[in-house]
Amino acid sequence: MKLNKFYIRYYPPGIVFEYQKRRKIKQKILDLFDIERETNVEKLAAQIARDEPLITPKILPQLETILQKLKDKTLFNNRDNVHKSFNVDKTLSSGHLLPITNVSIDKIGDICATGSYDRTCKIWNTRTGEETSTLIGHENAVYVVSLAISGRLVSHECVCGEHRYPPWHDMPN
Length: 173
Description:
Strand content: 35-45%
Number of strands: 10
Distance between the termini: 65 Å
Radius of gyration: 24 Å
Order of helices and strands: EEEHHHEEEEEEE
Number of helices: 3
Strand order of the largest sheet: 4-5-6-7
Structural class: alpha+beta
Shape: elongated
């Protein structure tokens, strides 16, 4: 067996080893669900090297680098910064009766379309947070909503594929 490459999988955290065995390329996945802020990368790399015959002493420094990169990119290290980076600007008023399945926002950010399990598609003014219209008549939950680049056309579809309106139509005012 010969190790060819490492691949980092950020979510869920893990490493994929690509190796060659008898002229065939194979992959082995190592899940690292327990990696967190306090994880000692050197100890983890040493433990993986003990358990994994593909990791040789020559490759150990590369494994440590990859584990550190994975640790740095995981949500555990960025959780504190996320709360500092984002603020609630507007909350959509009232809204759907059941959970939202899909959201689409136009290029400028003025219009938002939402689909829901309540069988409706709602159009929102993102500046005010107010609902501008509700598109009804679906036979099932609305799983797909999409806005055209112009922001004046909307497409919405439920899981059964039926449309209340033509696939692309002008948004109601």
